[in-house]
């Protein structure tokens, strides 16, 4: 393995620290390292449930849109709309995939960033809500989301419970010809938090390998807490199930939810 020693400028997002839960240089490799598979499973669930919605128009806002993979699939269903993400690197990836005339992509904090206009559908997937590590800020995020919805608008989301977060404990290594990823997780039950480090090497077209490293903090969210926050924010009907195979709530470490404003 030949490792590049190239030095990047301090303002180059590839190597700049992302800060607390804001993907830095890791964003450049996110799609390449296999996480698109989870987008596939999320889209299948979303596509199925959208058939039961009577949306007045195909417009969506994605809170924590990341590299835009979910919006790409929704664009193929003739959706337009907007995406918000705190990572400039992830948004740069999304901008390469999406038509700027069809989707407005904005860098910002989902707890406070406000866009013009409302939407009939909002989504927030891929542990985005778990990235918010205080209940006060999670309350702000939910209020911001409901503020972007039309009356009778839908919010579709997922999150990890404390039990689901505890599954991140341990070390996982994934090695392919083009990359090697080492993921280390530690769950702190008393704090209800998990600290995850994702690092490794990715092969460049010139044969050299570049190193990446990203540290993430997640906070577990109970079904009871999420239900309370959604009700206080103004959602009238709330439904939650285990994410995988529609498990019952008590069996689901990852929860799939729908709320109606």
Shape type: globular
Helicity level, as a percent range? 10-25%
Assigned CATH superfamily of the domain at 32-161 and 221-260: Vaccinia Virus protein VP39
Structural class call reads alpha/beta
Percentage of residues in DSSP E strands: 25-35%
CATH architecture of the domain at 32-161 and 221-260: 3-Layer(aba) Sandwich
What does this structure look like?
Helix 4 links the parallel strand 4 (119-124) and strand 5. The protein contains six helices and eleven strands. It has a domain at 32-161 and 221-260: 3-Layer(aba) Sandwich (Rossmann fold). It is of the alpha/beta class. Helix content is 23%, strand content 33%. The chain is globular.
Brief write-up:
The protein has 261 residues and is of the alpha/beta class. Helices cover 23% and strands 33% of the residues.
Write the layout of secondary structure elements.
Layout: H1 36-50, E1 59-63, H2 69-75, E2 80-85, H3 88-97, E3 103-107, E4 119-124, H4 135-147, E5 149-160, H5 162-166, E6 170-175, E7 179-188, E8 193-203, E9 209-219, H6 223-233, E10 237-242, E11 254-260
Parallel strand pairs: 1-2, 1-4, 2-3, 4-5
Antiparallel strand pairs: 5-11, 6-7, 7-8, 8-9, 10-11
Helix pairs in contact: 1-2
Name a few traits of the molecule.
Rossmann fold, seven-stranded mixed beta sheet, four-stranded antiparallel beta sheet, 261 residues, alpha/beta, 23% helix, disordered N terminus, 6 helices
